[in-house]
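Subject: for your reference before the review

Hello V.,

The reviewers asked for a structural picture of the protein, and I figured it would be easier to keep everything in one thread rather than splitting it across files. Below is the amino acid sequence we used in the manuscript, unchanged from the supplementary table.
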Amino acid sequence: MLECGRPHCGPIYHEKRSAKADYKRALRNKRRDNHLAVSNELHECLLNKDPESFWKSWQGKFGSGAVLSGCVVSGGR
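And here is what came back from the structure prediction:
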C-alpha cells in the first residue's frame, strides 16, 4: 500500500474502502447482537417471574454503577 502512495481512486482504494466498510459493519452487528442477547436474557427472567435471577443478570450485565465521591474540590480561590 505504501508503494502506491495514498490513492483516492482505483482498485487499491476500492479494496481499502471495502475492507473498512466490512470492519465497521462487523462492529455494528456485534453491538446489535450483544444488545439483543442482554435484552432476551432479561426478558426470559421476567417471563419466568424470577426476580432473583433477573436482578442477578441485571447486575452482571450493567454492574452496580460507580460510587461517586461526596466531596467536590473547588478550583477557585
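For the response letter, the relevant points are probably these. The helical segments are 11-47, 51-62. DSSP finds two helices and no strands in the chain.

Happy to draft the paragraph if you're swamped.

O.
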